[in-house]
């Protein structure tokens, strides 16, 4: 009851922490709800299936589950026969997906999912899609298309496939998307069996079908039903979902850090301003543990109330975040928001937990308040830094420096995360160490105004020197706001200069043939450009136990997914790397696979067959060459559906864009276009994170300044009774606030420079170009001015209200 009474009576003192928890929990709730809503859905074309039989799952070089290892034709044959005999199964369909895209008016028809739009006609009954007109395809030159394409039955249609453009006769239309060919044609495009669909009889028991199908497969694969069928997703949807998850994960991480940082600093500030009250409680017999429990209990109540309000606000804001993700094209189509219990509970636990942890930190010091401090000013104690704070601050600073150094040496995929973690660490270090130098800095900055004869600078200087911890608590959210704004905007500006320059340098003097409206280059495009790099990528499975399988070329090898590592394999037409029966490995890949030069290794390809290759060379890692390179003809023989990457034609040869769906770029255009592909998302992500960090911190700054101004109402009364006018007191408040903001902004800039410098150094090495650190002055100015205006207005509002009450 005492705790509730304290919260009710001292509500203004807890308002800042309440708002901070509310905003943090709202942000976390919104991101978790979106994350939960963005889970893969069962594709519409699997709506008519009872279950899907899938091959075993292999792992990548890190041991994480990845691709499923396709069955070969001979492996799938007995499985199909057994599944067809399962009671309740009306039909068994081999589901194949490959590249198919109509060409109309000399241009490819826009289709996001073109890479997997081609199917055998049997796949149409899985949805089921019904024939609207015509008949099923029987010949290899016949196709059934979506009626929305507008192709009439009997008409000729040019369809781009892996081989290139080919004329087909439209023999039917269906009421669903895709291009449906004869089963024989589909089997040639994708020989490996990646999924077998079970279409059940009407009224059949799905559970019984699944149980029987599992017995047929045994240890050769898995059977999924219900929501489990969502495992099969088109590649473009998986990419969108991946980008969306990356974005909201960054938002949630930043929101969590900012919440912990801001709430802890505000609770420390609020508790420090209650030393006289706590001293009075100690005088009347309160034990240290009772004081600590009281402070923690108050924080728990405030955290619970803030979490409840934050959950409501977060759910209300979820449609806005969904619209933003859709605008950035990183949300699954037709995503519906579903509010489950776990995001709300998780966010609430975080809100209450952060409040309790922050109060525990503040309560430890408050519990040591002596009864005599009831007679002292609340701000007269703890002026300096204790030993524990010195040790913690220096230790965190050391970790931050190490992370900043690691930013320069980390890989491209980890460099951004490393820079963010380094900045977070240095922000915490700056907040811990601020009391040590805020007094000296305050003296230095106010020294020029000392000679003017005004009492204002003297009062401002005395306040900072006498109460460095309070000033440090006020500066903490400013450090976070400016630090994240400078870091994120600086990262974007630095990458904007570095990546195009580096890419242009790598391909200087070459002409690049790029896909234009298609997901890749077909063999027709490759034939039109016979000179230059034309890498043909595929996913292949390298068997770990090389002694267990000795297979000749193109000999089927059953293999076991548990003994296979899936990785990207490049087919090259470069004579240096495309020797028949050999593979060229990068040093890191060879180490991960445990392979050395001259060793033989079975490699299982997309068609389910294995080929034993000899490691012809192990070379230093080179992204331009590839980590596992084989002859291009070998990849094409075992993966007929694979599309070629960009083709790099040297300056002494002529590039051709005569095939529809291709474009020519020089080095500068290619580098800029390649960067612009992800630049929009990167810029939007950075801007969202900046808005979150700065906006949240601005709210915290305003609350902190308001709390500080409210806590100094007795000081204002004394200064006013000594002859100070309202105008003078307001100017003192503005001066002190501005000085704290300037110090916090300076620290915020300083803590970001080491990570940004490390990132620039790493980019210089990665791009082989001179990359310097770049800052966004506009973002920096906006962040500083925004926090300054919010702090000044909050301080002025509370000070003016206090003076009016005193005058009354």
From TrEMBL:
- Membrane disposition: Multi-pass membrane protein
Q: Which family does it belong to?
A: Belongs to the ABC-4 integral membrane protein family.
Which Pfam families does the entry mention?
FtsX
What is the official name of this protein in its record? FtsX-like permease family protein
Can you give the residue ranges of the ABC3 transporter permease C-terminal domain? Answer: 250-369, 688-805
Keywords noted in UniProt: Cell membrane, Membrane, Transmembrane, Transmembrane helix
Q: Where are the transmembrane segments?
A: 12-35, 247-273, 294-317, 337-360, 390-412, 418-441, 471-492, 685-708, 729-753, 773-798
Q: Where in the cell is it found?
A: Cell membrane
Q: What is the lineage of its organism?
A: Bacteria, Bacillati, Actinomycetota, Actinomycetes, Kitasatosporales
């Amino acid at each position: 009851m005492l705790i509730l009474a304290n919260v009710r009576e001292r509500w203004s003192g807890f308002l800042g922490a309440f708002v901070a928890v509310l905003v943090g929990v709202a942000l976390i709730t919104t991101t978790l709800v979106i994350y939960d809503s963005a889970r893969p859905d069962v594709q519409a074309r699997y709506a008519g299936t009872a279950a899907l039989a899938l091959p075993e799952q292999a792992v990548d070089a890190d041991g994480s589950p990845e691709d499923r290892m396709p069955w070969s034709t001979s492996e799938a044959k007995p499985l199909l026969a057994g599944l067809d005999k399962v009671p309740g199964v009306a039909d068994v369909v081999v589901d194949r997906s490959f590249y198919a895209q109509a060409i109309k008016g000399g241009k490819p028809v826009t289709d996001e999912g073109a890479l997997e739009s081609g199917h055998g006609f049997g796949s149409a009954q899985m949805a089921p899609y019904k024939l609207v007109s015509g008949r099923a395809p029987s010949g290899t030159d016949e196709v059934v298309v979506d009626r929305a394409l507008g192709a009439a039955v009997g008409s000729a249609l040019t369809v781009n496939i892996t081989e290139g453009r080919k004329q087909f006769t439209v023999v039917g239309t269906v009421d669903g998307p895709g291009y449906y060919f004869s089963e024989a044609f589909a089997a040639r495009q994708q020989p490996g069996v990646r999924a077998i669909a079970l279409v059940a009889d009407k009224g059949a028991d799905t559970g019984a079908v699944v149980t029987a199908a599992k017995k047929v497969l045994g240890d050769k694969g898995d059977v999924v039903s219900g929501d489990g069928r969502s495992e099969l997703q088109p590649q473009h949807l998986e990419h969108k979902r991946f980008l969306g998850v990356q974005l909201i994960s960054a938002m949630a991480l930043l929101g969590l850090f900012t919440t912990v940082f801001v709430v802890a600093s505000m609770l420390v500030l609020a508790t420090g301003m209650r030393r006289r009250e706590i001293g009075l409680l100690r005088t009347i017999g309160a034990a240290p543990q009772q004081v600590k429990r009281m402070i923690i209990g108050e924080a728990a109540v405030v955290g619970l109330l803030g979490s409840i309000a934050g959950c409501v606000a977060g759910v209300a804001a979820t449609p806005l975040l969904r619209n933003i993700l859709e605008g950035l094209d990183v949300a699954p189509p037709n995503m519906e928001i579903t509010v489950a219990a776990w995001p709300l509970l998780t966010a609430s636990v975080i809100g209450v937990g952060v409040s309790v942890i922050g109060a525990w930190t503040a309560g430890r010091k408050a519990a040591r308040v002596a009864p005599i401090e009831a007679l002292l000013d609340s701000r007269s104690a703890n002026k300096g830094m204790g030993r524990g704070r010195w040790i913690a601050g220096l230790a965190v600073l050391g970790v931050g420096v190490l992370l900043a150094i690691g930013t320069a040496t980390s890989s491209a995929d980890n460099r951004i995360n490393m820079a963010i973690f380094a900045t977070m660490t240095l922000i915490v270090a700056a907040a811990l160490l601020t009391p040590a130098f805020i007094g000296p800095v305050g003296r230095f900055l106010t020294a020029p105004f000392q000679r003017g004869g005004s009492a204002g600078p003297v009062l401002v200087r005395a306040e900072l020197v006498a109460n460095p911890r309070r000033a440090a608590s006020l500066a903490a959210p400013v450090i976070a706001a400016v630090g994240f704004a400078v870091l994120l905007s600086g990262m974007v500006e630095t990458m904007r200069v570095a990546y195009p320059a580096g890419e242009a340098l790598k391909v200087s003097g070459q002409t690049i043939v790029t896909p234009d409206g298609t997901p890749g280059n077909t063999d027709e495009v490759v034939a039109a450009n016979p000179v230059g790099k034309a890498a043909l990528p595929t996913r292949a499975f390298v068997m770990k136990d090389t002694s267990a399988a000795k297979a000749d070329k193109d000999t089927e090898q059953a293999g076991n997914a548990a003994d296979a590592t899936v990785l990207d394999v490049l087919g090259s037409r470069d004579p240096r790397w495309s020797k028949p029966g050999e593979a060229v490995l990068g040093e890191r890949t060879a180490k991960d696979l445990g392979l050395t030069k001259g060793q033989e290794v079975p490699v299982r390809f997309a068609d389910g067959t294995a080929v034993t290759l000899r490691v012809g060379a192990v070379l230093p890692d080179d992204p331009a060459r590839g980590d596992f390179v084989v002859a291009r003809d070998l990849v094409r023989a075992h993966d007929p559906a694979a599309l070629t990457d960009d083709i790099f034609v040297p300056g002494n040869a002529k590039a051709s864009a005569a095939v529809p769906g291709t474009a020519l770029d020089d080095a500068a255009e290619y580098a800029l276009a390649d960067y612009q592909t992800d630049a929009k998302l990167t810029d939007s992500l950075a801007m969202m994170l900046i808005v979150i960090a700065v906006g949240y911190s601005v709210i915290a700054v305003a609350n902190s300044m308001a709390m500080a101004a409210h806590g100094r109402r007795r000081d204002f009364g004394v200064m006013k009774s000594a002859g100070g006018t309202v105008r003078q007191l307001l100017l003192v408040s503005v001066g002190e606030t501005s000085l704290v903001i300037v110090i916090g902004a300076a620290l915020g800039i300083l803590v970001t420079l080491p990570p940004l410098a490390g990132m620039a150094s790493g980019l210089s090495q990665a791009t082989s170009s001179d990359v310097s650190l770049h800052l966004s002055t506009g973002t920096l100015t906006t962040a500083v001015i925004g926090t300054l205006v919010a702090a000044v207005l909050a301080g002025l509002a509370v000070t003016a209200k206090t003076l009016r009450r005193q005058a009354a």
